[in-house]
Predict the structure.
Amino acid sequence: MIPSTDKPRESRLDPAALADLVAKGKEASLAGKTADYIPALSRARSEAVGVSVCLADGSIIEAGDSRSPFTLQSVSKALALPYVLDTIGEDRVFARVGKEPTGDPFNSIIRLEASAFKKPFNPMINAGAIAISSLMPGRTGKEKAEGLYGFASRVLGLEAGKTAAMDKEVFASEAATANRNRFIAWFLKDLGIMEGEVEEGLDAYFRQCAMCVTAVDLSRLGSCLALDGLEPRSGRELMSRRAARVTKALMLSCGLYDGSGEFCVDAGIPAKSGVGGGIVAAARGRLGIGTYGPSLDLRGNSIAGSIVICALSEALDLFEL
Ligand code: GLU
C-alpha cells in the first residue's frame, strides 16, 4: 500500500505530550548513571530530564528540565565542525580528518595507529574533534574558543549581546584528568595533524566541551541544522548550507558513539550526544530537538534523550531515510 502523505504532524505536539515523554525518560534513566570520568560531571542530578522542540518558525515547545544548564561535552563536535568548515574551508578540514564511522567508543585510540588511514576517522570522535579544535583560528586555546563561543551564541539563539558561559569547574576538572585526550593530541602531533601548539589545541577542546547550554538552546541549534544553516523564524544564514549538510551527514553516521547505527535505525534523523547528558537532533526542514538527561547508558548516550527522540520521530514521522 502506498503510504499516506499526511501533513506534518507538528500540531500533535504540546507540552503535555512532551511531559509524558519526560516521565518515560525519567523512569528509564534509573537504569543508567552519570559520567564520572570527568569528576565534576558526576554532580549532575541523575533524575533530571528535559526536552525542547524548536519549530521552523522559531516557536519552542518544552517540558521538564528544559532550562537546566549542563555542559555540551561531545555535542560541541556538532558546533565546532560547521564553525571550522565555514572558517577555514572543507578541503583543509578533511585533509586532516576523515568522514568514516568507526563503531568504536568516543575516546578510542586503537585505529589511530592500527589503521593504514593515518588520520582520525571522523570529526565526531575525540581524535577528530581535537584536531578540529586545533584548526580554529587563534593562537591560544582561549582565542580559538572565543571564536567558537561567538558562533555558538548565534546558532544557540542566545539573546543579542549574550555569550554562552563556560563552566569553569568542569573545564578545570577535565583539563586536570584528560590523560587519554592528551595522549591522542600528542599522537596526532606526531602524525602531523595537530595545528600549532598541542596544549593550545587541547585547551580549546576543553573549553568547547565546558560550554553551558540548556535543552532549549540545543533545540535551536537542531532547528538551524534542520533548516540547512538558517536561523529559525528570521531565515538569516547562520552557517553555510554545505557546512550544515556535511555536519548532519556525519551526525547521522557517527553522532552517537558506538551506538550510532542502532540510533539511526530507531530514530532515523541526525543527532549528536555528549556525556554531559545532552543530545541535539535535526529533522530536515521541520524542527530541531534538544534533550537533557545525564543518566547515561553503557555507550555514554543519554538514556532519556534517546527514548524521547526516538518517540518523537515515530509520533511526528520524522524518519528521513
Ligand atoms: N570532554 C569529553 C572528553 O573528551 C567529551 C566526551 C563526550 O561527551 O563524549 O572526554
